[in-house]
Inverse folding.
């Protein structure tokens, strides 16, 4: 019975993850809040912390499926000798690598502090609200001041800028998607290019973070059967939901501003703060 309840709760969290991973509203923040709200716990004290990151790999797999033609093209044309440096897969993945460096360095240094002090609904609600204000400011100031950039052919300077802004996502509730899109705006990328770059950037980032969390918990074998089933269910559900959300999100960004997501963040943050004041967390 405990296995069934844990799996049912994981379905709820998988839906939430799939809906929020690529939207600029913080999937980690939403997962932590709803984990607390529905009483999601495992037998291993670090299970929930690890689950929060590993379940996101389901949504990342959706990116691999939806953008497989682009990924395949970068692999087939990886070497500059074949198509030239500018069009090579080497250049594309090298820019991804550069953008990963700041977050990787600061993530390793600050991960334990974030886990200890910031993974709670109230801290996340405050970050959601502040991040919403930052999104509105950045969109008004930088969104329409982009430079001419063909698709995802970003420069080293743009990759570094996006990577530095991604460091904001170390604070749960800020949102990796929001941070990288804002970084894209500041560096001159269009909204769609910034969003798609953040999709590809998420692949190595989330694989790395999930590996780190699994290592800290003592490996997959340290989990009980119920926890493994729960993890598999959440992974699958988040993958299916993210398949639908990604295309919808890109279509939305081509026509409309992101302000609606900033407003949602602030309204949701206020609701969470009120719920916390009433003792629901």
């Amino acid at each position: 019975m405990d296995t069934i309840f844990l799996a049912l709760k994981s379905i709820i969290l998988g839906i939430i993850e799939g809906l929020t991973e690529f939207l600029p509203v913080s999937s980690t923040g939403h997962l932590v809040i709803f984990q607390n709200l529905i009483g999601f716990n495992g037998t291993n004290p670090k299970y929930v912390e690890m689950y929060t990151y590993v379940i996101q790999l389901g949504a990342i797999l959706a990116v691999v499926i939806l953008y497989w033609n682009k990924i395949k093209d970068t692999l087939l044309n990886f070497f500059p000798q074949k198509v030239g440096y500018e069009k090579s897969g080497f250049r594309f993945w090298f820019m991804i690598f550069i953008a990963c460096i700041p977050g990787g360095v600061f993530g390793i240094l600050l991960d334990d502090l974030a886990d200890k002090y910031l993974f709670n609904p109230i801290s996340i609600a405050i970050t959601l609200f502040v991040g919403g204000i930052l999104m509105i400011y950045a969109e008004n100031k930088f969104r329409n001041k982009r430079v001419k950039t063909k698709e995802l052919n970003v420069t080293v300077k743009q990759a570094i800028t996006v990577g530095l802004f991604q460091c904001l996502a170390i604070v749960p509730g800020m949102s990796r998607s929001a941070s990288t899109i804002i970084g894209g705006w500041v560096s001159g990328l269009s909204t769609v290019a910034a969003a798609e770059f953040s999709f590809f950037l998420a692949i190595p980032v989330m694989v790395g973070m999930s590996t780190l969390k699994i290592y800290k918990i003592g490996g997959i074998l340290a989990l009980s059967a119920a926890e493994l089933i729960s993890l598999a269910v959440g992974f699958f559900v988040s993958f299916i939901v993210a398949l639908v959300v990604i295309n919808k999100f890109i279509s939305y960004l081509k026509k409309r501003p992101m302000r609606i997501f900033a407003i949602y963040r602030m309204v949701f943050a206020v609701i969470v703060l009120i719920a916390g004041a009433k003792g629901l967390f």
